[in-house]
Amino acid sequence: MVLDAAGASFVCATGSFNTATKLGQPAPIMRRPLAQFECEATAERIRHKIVAFSREGLWFARQVPLGEARQQIRAWQHNYNHHRPHAGLGNIPPVEFMAQKRLEMPAA
Question: What separation in angstroms does the CA of 30 have from each of 20, 25, 34, 53, 62?
């Protein structure tokens, strides 16, 4: 065993095994398949969640799908023009500023 050849032992703080003893030596060998199974099960769960989220239109990759990007841009433009106050316009949104300017303009 590698630990024996190196003169090292592994003591688990949460479990009850010590590789320096005869009883604890098979513990890492028995736990390896369980750790592999847990890793594969976790990866499979994550893959399923990503697929489910992508079906709902949510995306976790770096590139956002074009349709979702367009929707986000439209939402940002609406917020920028209708709700966000602008200091250069007297702390009111551009839509309100334009409405006030139309009222101030004399009829021709």
Answer: 16, 10, 8, 36, 39
Distance CA 22, CA 6 (A): 16
Each residue's pLDDT expressed in tens, for the chain with a length of 108 residues:
566 677 776 565 666 666 667 766 676 677 778 788 888 999 999 888 888 887 776 666 666 677 888 898 999 999 999 999 999 899 999 999 999 888 776 665
Helix axes 66-82, 94-104, angle to 10 degrees: 50
pTM for the full model? 0.39
Q: From 12, 22, 13, select the one nearest 1 (Cα to Cα).
A: 22
